Amino acid sequence: MKRLRILTLIALLLAIITFVVKNRKPSTVPAGKGLLVDKAWLSINKHPLTPQAVVRPPDQTFLTYPEWFLVFSPAEQADYFKTHTSTTFPYLKHVDQMWGGYGVMYDQIKGNFPFNTGYHVMIWVIAGSTTVEYGIKSFYETIIGRVTDTGPNEEMTAEDTFNADYEYSYVKFIEVLPWYEYDFNHQLKMLWSSTSFSGPHLLRKLERRYYLTTELLIKSGYGWLIGLGTKSAYETASLQTAVVMDRLPTGLDTTGFMHNIKVLPNGMVLANLPRYAEFNTAVSKLAKNGVGFTEIAGNNSAIMLTVLTEKSLNITANYKILFTQPIFTKPGLTRVAIVTTVGNLSSLVRTLKLKGVTIEHIYDY
User: Fold this and answer.
1) Cβ-contact 243, 271 below 8 angstroms
2) Given CB 3.0 to 4.6 Å as the disulfide criterion, which of 103, 121, 181, 333 pairs with 327?
3) What does the pLDDT read at residue 313?
């Protein structure tokens, strides 16, 4: 009889887990199964016009997604924390999106490119550590944070406001430079010097000081270790992306974002654009001017971008949708991962701009 009760309890728990898993809102919705990109787009440019020293592997347009998700996630937090405390943030949903996106990316490149061991290892390290961090935060906020949390109509504590400012500062930094170079120690000093002990919600203030102090100390130490490991295992990342364009832009001041300009014998133009977040801005300006791209970082095949939209996108032959992800803190807004070719990039950027779609990032390998 006792064994029957135990088996019944186990069956009930499994039924509850199955119900929750089946009925939860998916965090990443693939556009289909397996390979979603035209296989002809997954090729290596064997004779690039771009100097070999600045060519990057073509699969990295996909592999950089998990890395950039770790910019999007803090950015979403920074925006959310302006009007909400971190206690109600959906950390585990972001873990699902990070790994779900990586899974779809891997389905596109496996068997089509040599296995990029170094990049995969880096993803496993940063995604694994983020999974642990967000898991601990979710557990802590559920058990402790909810006890001290202020109500939706109550003024947030100075510590919660500091958290929003710190997160925003962090996001602006990692859009340009590696996260482990961020000065967490400076933020720790600011926490204790710029926020007052006086004010309402004393319990929340003390608990948030403990929470933020612990986070900043751990990230400072972990960042230092990751920095040492990165410098010993990887070359210093370039802050420029070489591109080959079909022509020079006309009537556009490019002094702030286009460098080392060289007209090639075939009339095309080789130049350096800023890498990372500023690459989006540069490409958008050039595309608006009518400039087309022949190569980006030596590649002329698939290139990925993500957009944020409340509208549905009509699929055309010039691009493919890989997956969609709801932005849980902004109901109705969706991230859409799109793949096109380097040659079609300018046209797609212009089309998206005309439709009022926000380009979140262009993944420049």
Assistant:
1) yes
2) 333
3) 87
